[in-house]
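Sequence of Thymidylate synthase/dCMP hydroxymethylase domain-containing protein (marine sediment metagenome).
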Amino acid sequence: MSQTEMNKGCPVITVRGETLPEVWEKSVIECWKRGIAIKTEYDKTEDPPSRDCTMIMEVAHPFKEPRLHRAFPAGLEDLEIYRQEVLLGIHDDWIKPEEGKWEYTYHERLFDYKIEGRSIDQIDYVVRKLSETPYSRRAQAVTWKSWLDPEYDDPPCLQRLWFRIFEDYLQLNVHFRSNDAFKAAFMNIFVFTELQ
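Predicted 3D structure, token representation.
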């Protein structure tokens, strides 16, 4: 494959580090330096293109201090509200698409995924599955509903949480279809490690 062929499309960038803040900071810098300029569906006509890439972020010690980056764009209060929104469902009562309100929350999709008149607690499934079969590759939770989400203005960015156990270590792979590197990624990384 020629260098020209390798440079086509969206670049795949991998960043590694010890802590959440270190990896997040590296990812923002690398996305800006090596990502491609491209419009998004959220942009206004006059907005400059965003920077885009497929980012693989590997955090060796996600619970090692420091866990917070001093320059993440939201404050501690916003981070705590978001943590409670995702893990505890404090905004699940805002889900009222028929009233023009939220179509979903991550908490609702992970802990109360509704399909064909029933509800699935995917996180409970993950815990049970790994308790019964620690080597399973099936312990995952998804958010996407292919029959609904393509029609939404703001479909879920989070797509999948995939949990694996290696000896006594729980590994979490988080897949996003879109994750604003500067404005959203740090809060997402922090909150989903809290789910671990």
